[in-house]
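Re: weekly structure request thread

Next one in the queue (221 aa):
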Amino acid sequence: MRILIVSATATESRFDTRSEIKVGTPVKVIEPLNHDIDILVTGVGAVPTAFALTRYVQDYDLVINIGIGGSYKPSIQIGAVVCVREDAFGDYGIDDKGTFKSLSELRSRGNRLSSREEILVNPWINLDFPMLKLPLVKGLTLSTASGSKDIIEKIIQRWNADIETMESASVFYVCKQLGIRFICYRAISNLVEPRDKSKWEVGKAITNLDVEVRNFIKTLP
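Done, posted below.
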């Protein structure tokens, strides 16, 4: 099977390539993992990820998107690894005099909320990956990472997401549009709260992520 592992940064992947990883160019993994695997580092954010992924994704049978993220829920603790079942572009819309309105609300009539129209669901999780043992979560992709109390409270109230990322919804969008199987893993490096990087545990998150992704690859036929 040809597999493309996609991450925003090179530090989020610990697979051995023995060659320089350049943003936007796939590099072959040389470890004996019983599959033909490449790494693609896209750069941070939904737009760079969508661009880089669209260029190469049709050459692969499966995309594994990996990275770190923040948790909105105290029950999803720092260091935990989760699988994103559904995601959305959480800040695509307009600011209407201090009230955020999503694209679907702008298309709807009256005041009826229809934010479910924005939700992107991975259709392959239950059918193709029954071996998954990780928690399945609802992600939210933002172009600006949350770091203030007021903004975080509004996001939680509106979306009730489990975790926050800056890329995963773009992986959902591209792969669903092109009919390529995909799965998104996130390791929690921090709680989504007023920004304090002294509380983050990036190394722990990436270590746990590496273990889970390798275990998943071993289960693939």
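The longest strand covers residues 181-191. Residues 202-219 form the longest helix (18 residues).
Next request, please.
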